[in-house]
Design goal:
Chain A: Allows the formation of correctly charged Gln-tRNA(Gln) through the transamidation of misacylated Glu-tRNA(Gln) in the mitochondria. The reaction takes place in the presence of glutamine and ATP through an activated gamma-phospho-Glu-tRNA(Gln). Chain A: Keywords: ATP-binding, Ligase, Mitochondrion, Nucleotide-binding, Protein biosynthesis. Chain A: Its main location: mitochondrion. The complex is a heterodimer of chains A (547) and B (486). Chain A has 547 residues and is an alpha+beta fold. Mean pLDDT of chain A is 86; it is low at 7-13, 15-41 and 452-463. Chain A is 36% helix and 18% strand. Chain A has 17 helices and 17 strands. A 9-stranded mixed β-sheet of chain A has the order 3-7-8-11-2-12-13-14-15. Chain A folds into 3 domains: 2-15 and 25-334, no CATH class; 340-478, no CATH class; 486-546, Arc Repressor Mutant, subunit A (Orthogonal Bundle). Chain B is an alpha/beta fold. Chain B contains 17 helices and 11 strands. An 11-stranded mixed β-sheet of chain B has the order 1-3-2-4-6-5-10-11-9-7-8, sandwiched between helices. In chain B, helix 8 packs across helix 11 and helix 8 (281-296) packs across helix 12 (356-373). The longest helix of chain B has 18 residues, at 356-373. The chains are: A alpha+beta (547), B alpha/beta (486). At the A-B interface, helix 1 of A face helix 8, helix 10 and helix 12 of B.
Chain lengths: 547, 486
């Protein structure tokens, strides 16, 4: 369990005086001066670190019972505490702590045995209390990493992005200027955020993009956040510096509040160009350390404030909130319950069944939160490695292909075609009892009769129809003689008959018109009442026609 | 001519709460509603509350211009508890603005002053009722209410109780919910109870402490049961027989030897003990309280609530920041501004380590020194550590006793006096003996016991282990017996 330690009062909330002289966060954001020999053939190296603010998906605010919202009437989801009314006090949502903990664990972080909340002070209309509750001195977790593999988002190497720390904090209100007025909406005020600070381990815009994309997948898989940058539920600040290979790191600039991966990459590129141009044209003047914004139209960064204008946030422990101590047994339990991560399932399935990475990713994309697509696929396969590749083709190419087609309004779900039915169908095809063409008919039929088709009542869902009934409905004949139905002898007879029935086609083929072969295949299929394997019929015909 | 104590007691409760624009009065607001017949443990009792405790029916202004006309949209948990037990809220009482002060003199200019209601002799001019809960203390002392709630951050209940000759309890930190209490310094603020005798204070105290979802520092029922169990183990079977009392050597003010002899005769043992860090408690307190105040009061002027000044849109050309500056400059009094500036400075990046953190360290030291003196284990320690503590505790104290204040109530300074003296250091010194228990989060109660050489009352403070209010009440009653026979 999460233990809230009230026996903290009067005890120095901050570890020791010595350790806070150099608050860890500041010192380690200062980039190390050691540089690995880079193999990049370009002269300049870009160093990138990220600060990510990800909204916690708990449905309520971090310290008040008001619900979180998006796109609702302004100032409707507001508790007195969110508006900082006198006498109101914060009450920590333990669900937010749990979600932050599993995120930290999934990032391989060390969990602080005793983490505390602090206040960061500034006067601005987006913060009614004039301070934000955050974790400055003792964050929830530190020292994690996330591996980026070569090829992800066009990253050119496999490397680890170090996680400096992960902390819980409040989001601010939204404000906008309309004419002379500044309008403030407190709906977002007090929403729980995770701030995830990386080490300066990325070296290109693509690598930074790869990290953000991977983190989005991780958050969704854990259910700790939706990672939706468009809605502002995940926002990125990026630190960029540029230096010549082998030289110490350059001056870094921070670009704030980026809300898409495309803008992130654009901001890094713009900043990189700006720094290089500065070093080339005015090498005698040091580059100013500053905070910048991104103009989303020109994709150029612009200055917000310089280091000299930086605010003193007067961080102070918040004595309204007890320290969070995590029971090691509870932590072990959370660790054991961590779900399989997207990259782990890709690795496992590609290794086990020799599948295409892209196809596994398509299955993940069907449901990034609960992996319904993966679970469905594995149910269809049923540990039957013989049909593993076939099952993937049927799901990704036939089922999803049909869904994407024309008038179909069906959406994929695991009940659209029950895993049992699909599995049964694939086995029948493999055993030669029905043909692939039959399979396609069945898939089309089931999708058109699915529960998500408004013409069909829910109690008439496709999944409840047994396969044999579907076969009857579609007038598909099942060959009883199992695999022997397509033995070489039968197939040869069938093809001979087809050749006899279509002498003109045979003539044309022999004259060099290879296209007419399909006419012969069609004849053979008709003769077999659709049961024959079209591919094998084609091969047999080619053999026979050579003679 | 001043009302004397004898005269006042002959009025015995016929005084009614009142507000006035010309005469001194403890009240800033009175409840004109007729008390309805009620049931409960406080049925028919009239209780005043300090002006920083939210009450939906009243404006809760903390005696500050910045919150004039602020009507809280909810009622504080502690007041809800009183009302639920049938109490009638008599009114709201004046205080030093936001609790910052020791004499209830830091008031908006349109407020009439608060005095100790009676002088020892008819020819004596009125004196300060103490602060910051001076209004609550004066209201109780004059008898216009049965009891009152105050708040105590560094002595704001105990000091006025001592000056006004009544009982004032600052309970253990975390015992009473702070939801609805406008914060001065979160880690120190406690809701306190003022009454004319211990019976009254105990009756009110029995009602308000309970766990609260609205305040995470308010302790859980299991911690309360643990404390009750420990109290049960340490309450003497009879009177104060076997009770161990300590007198801190570092406190120069002495308690009357007659009182100490009496306590001994009742079976208590008394010894001198040492709390070396107590000397540095006052500066540590002012750093921490001011730092927390600078944070807590930063919300005022933001435009979501507050005075008409705050709500008004101001000049058209005014920016948000300018507007906030104007409201805060006009809305806060001089003492509040002084402490906010001092607190802001203590938290600034350059000063933090050497000022705020040092004060925090001193607080920690003091707390440890208190814990080393008590033989009663701290109920909030886990069971393992409690057991260790009990093993070591062959010897040790139950209660620490010393005068509440360095002196009797000071004569009221006129506004001119304050201008010439200016520094206000003397006012800060008044808290010298009350801040240690605040910093340590321990329960402490001022009981009227003595009369100073000038004839004005002086209280004695009893401080015990966290959650041991019951032990303090027990010893307090014996002291009341002694006072009665003086």
């Amino acid at each position: 369990m999460i233990i809230l330690s009230r026996w903290g009062l009067g005890r120095p909330i901050i570890g020791s005086i010595a350790s806070t002289r150099h608050p860890c966060r500041q010192s380690s954001r200062r980039y190390a001066t050691k540089v690995k020999a880079a193999k990049c053939e370009e002269e300049w190296e870009t160093v990138i670190g990220l600060e990510i603010h990800a909204q916690l998906k708990t449905g309520r605010k971090l310290f008040s019972p008001a619900s979180t919202s998006y796109g609702e009437t302004p100032n409707t989801n507001v508790d007195l505490h969110d508006a900082a009314f006198p006498g109101t006090l914060p009450f920590l949502d333990l669900q937010a702590v749990r979600l932050s903990l599993i995120t930290a664990l999934a990032l391989g972080c060390k969990i602080n045995t005793r983490s505390t909340f602090d206040r960061k002070h500034y006067f601005y209309h987006d913060i009614p209390a004039s301070y934000q509750i955050t974790q400055h001195y003792n964050p929830l977790a530190r020292d994690g990493k996330l591996r980026i593999t070569q090829g992800e988002n066009k990253a050119q190497r496999t490397f680890d992005v170090g996680i400096h720390q992960l902390q819980i904090e409040q989001d601010t209100a939204k404000s906008q200027t309309v004419g002379d007025n500044v309008l403030v909406d407190l709906n977002r005020a007090g929403t729980g955020l995770m701030e995830i600070v990386t080490k300066p381990d990325m070296r290109s815009a693509e690598e930074a993009g790869a990290f953000v994309r991977k983190l989005q997948g991780l958050l969704r898989r854990l259910g700790s956040g939706d990672g939706d940058m468009e809605k502002g539920n995940l926002r990125v600040d990026v630190n960029v510096s540029v230096h010549r290979h082998g030289m110490p790191f350059g001056t870094r600039c921070e670009i704030k509040n980026i809300n898409s991966v495309r803008f992130l990459q654009a901001a890094i590129e713009s900043e990189r160009r700006r720094h290089i141009s500065h070093y080339l044209t005015t090498p005698s003047i040091p580059l100013q350390q500053e905070t910048r914004g991104l103009n989303e139209l020109t994709l150029e960064t612009f200055s917000l404030r310089s280091k000299e204008e930086a605010m003193d946030y007067r961080y102070m422990p918040d004595s309204n909130l007890p320290a969070i101590a995590i029971d090691p047994a509870y932590l072990e339990k959370l660790k054991a319950e961590l779900p399989e991560m997207p990259w782990q399932v890709v690795e496992r399935l590609t290794a086990a069944y020799n599948l295409q990475k892209r196809d596994v990713e398509t299955l993940i994309g069907l449901d990034e939160y609960h992996f319904e697509g993966i679970r469905y696929y594995e149910e269809v396969v049923g540990n039957d490695s013989k049909i593993a590749k076939k099952a993937m083709n049927w799901i990704v190419h036939e089922v999803l292909g049909q869904i994407g087609k024309g008038k179909s309004i069906a959406k994929w779900s695991s009940t659209l075609i029950s895993a049992g039915t699909l599995r049964e169908m694939i086995i029948m095809i493999e055993e030669g009892k029905i043909t692939g063409t039959n399979g396609k008919q069945i898939v089309k039929y089931l999708i058109n009769h699915s529960g998500s088709n408004p013409d069909v009542k829910p109690d008439n869902q496709a999944q409840s129809i047994p396969l044999d009934q579907i076969l009857r409905d579609l007038d598909i004949e099942v060959s009883d003689s199992s695999s022997s139905s397509s033995t070489a002898g039968d197939l040869e007879d069938l093809c001979q008959q087809a050749i006899q029935n279509q002498p003109k086609s045979v003539n044309d083929y022999k004259k060099g018109n290879e296209k007419v072969l399909m006419r012969l295949v069609g004849e053979a299929m008709k003769l077999s009442k659709g049961r024959a394997n079209a591919q094998r019929v084609k091969e047999e015909l080619v053999d026979l026609l050579k003679q | 001519m001043r009302v004397t104590k004898r005269h006042l007691s002959s009025l015995s409760g016929s005084l009614k709460p009142r507000v006035s624009e010309t005469q001194p009065t403890p009240y800033s607001w009175i409840n004109n509603a007729t008390p309805s017949s009620s049931t409960g443990r406080l049925a028919g009792k009239s209780i005043a509350i300090k002006d920083n405790i939210s009450y939906q029916a009243a404006s809760t202004s903390c005696s500050s211009s910045i919150l004039q006309d602020y009507n809280p949209p909810y009622t504080a948990s502690c007041v809800q508890a009183l009302v639920a037990e049938g109490a009638h809220i008599a009114g709201q009482t004046k205080m030093d603005e936001f609790g910052m002060g020791s004499q209830t003199t830091h008031l908006p200019s349109n407020y009439t002053p608060v005095h100790i209601p009676a002088s020892p002799r008819p020819d004596e001019p009125p004196r300060s009722a103490g602060g910051s809960s001076g209004g609550s203390a004066a209201a109780v002392a004059e008898g216009s209410c049965w009891a009152a709630l105050g708040t105590d951050t560094g002595g704001s209940v105990r000091l006025p109780a001592s000056y006004c000759g009544i009982v004032g309890l600052k309970p253990s930190y975390g015992m009473i919910s702070r939801r609805g209490v406008v914060a001065y310094a979160d880690s120190l603020d406690c809701v306190g109870v003022l009454g004319r005798d211990i019976q009254t204070v105990e009756e009110v105290f029995n009602v308000i402490p309970r766990p609260d979802q609205g305040d995470m520092t308010c302790v859980s029922s299991s911690s309360r049961s643990a404390a009750a169990q420990i109290l049960d183990n340490h309450l003497p079977e009879k009177g104060i027989e076997g009770l161990r009392i300590g007198l801190p050597r570092e406190i120069a003010q002495r308690t009357s030897s007659a009182l100490l002899e009496y306590l001994k005769s009742q079976g208590a043992s008394i010894e001198e003990v040492s709390l070396p860090s107590i000397r540095r408690a006052l500066p540590a307190y002012y750093v921490l309280a001011s730092a927390e105040a600078s944070s807590n009061l930063a919300r005022f002027g933001g435009g979501w609530y507050g005075s008409k000044n705050d709500q008004a849109s101001g000049k058209r050309s005014e920016s948000g920041l300018e507007r906030r500056k104007r409201i805060r400059t006009e809305g806060f009094g001089k003492e509040v501004k002084k402490r906010l500036l001092a607190g802001t400075w203590a938290l600034s990046a350059d000063e933090f380590d050497n000022t705020y953190l040092k004060a925090l360290q001193l607080r920690h030291l003091l707390r440890e020194e208190y814990q080393a003196l008590f033989r009663i284990p701290h109920p909030l320690l886990n069971v393992e550590r409690r057991r260790q503590k009990q093993k070591q505790a062959g010897e040790g104290l139950d209660v620490i006793l010393h005068p509440t204040a360095i002196r009797t109530a000071p004569p009221l300074n006129t506004r001119e006096d304050r201008k010439t003296k200016g520094k206000g250091m003397e006012e800060y010194d008044q808290d010298l003996l009350t801040v240690p228990a605040s910093l340590a989060g321990l329960p402490s109660m001022s009981v009227p016991a003595e009369t100073g050489s000038d004839g004005w009352p002086l209280g004695v403070s009893l401080t015990s282990q966290w959650g041991m209010e019951g032990l303090i009440f027990r010893l307090g009653r014996v002291m009341e017996d002694w006072s009665r026979n003086q």
